Amino acid sequence: MKTIVMACLLLLALPASADEQRVYTVDPYGNVKYGEPSLSVGGDGRIVEVDAYGNKQPQKTQYAAKDGKIYEADSYGRIRHDKPSYTVERDGRVIQTDAYGNKRYDRPQFKVEGTKVYQNDAYGRKQQKFEIKNKDSRSK
Q1: Using CA atoms, how far apart are residues 107 and 96, in angstroms rounded to an integer?
Q2: Is 33 helix (H, G, I), strand (E, B) or coil?
């Protein structure tokens, strides 16, 4: 769940492009973990989980970006309005909202800073870092 929210944040933080973007987790030392599952952010705003070998996992939960919010989507890309969504605030904070649009400040929050996304605790302290990279920028 944390990884998917991070992908959503990165999708909204970066300018729209036709290229596919990948979101990877980063260890505490700043090393990108390419061997773990990542997220693929398409140019159409759909976010799909990708396994460690680069295969998309359409059976896993997907997300779609629309009007500055991130919604859960089914395998066909249709938005599920009965599920919680995420709102990206002007200062880069991402806050979960329930199905009725009420902000849930008691849920994990995230902060976007450039191409990095940090998970914050209830007091705003950084806990974990995620990073986005272009699909072809992975070093081999």
Answers
A1: 7
A2: coil
The residues, ordered by sequence, that sit 6+ positions from 117 with a Cβ below 8 Å of its Cβ are 6, 9, 10, 13, 110, 111, 129, 130, 131, 132
Highest mean pLDDT among 24-33, 77-86, 126-135: 77-86
Domain ranges, residue 119: 2-137
Query: Can you give the C-alpha Rg of the chain in angstroms?
Result: 14
Total number of domains constituting the chain? 1
**Nearest to residue 25, comparing CAs of 119, 111, 136?**
119
CB neighbour list of residue 29: distance below 8 Å, 6 or more residues apart: none
> How do residues 40-90 score in pLDDT, each as one tens digit?
888 787 888 899 888 999 888 888 888 878 888 988 888 898 888 888 878
Q: What's the predicted TM-score (pTM) here?
A: 0.65
Sign of CA dihedral 5, 8, 10, 13: negative
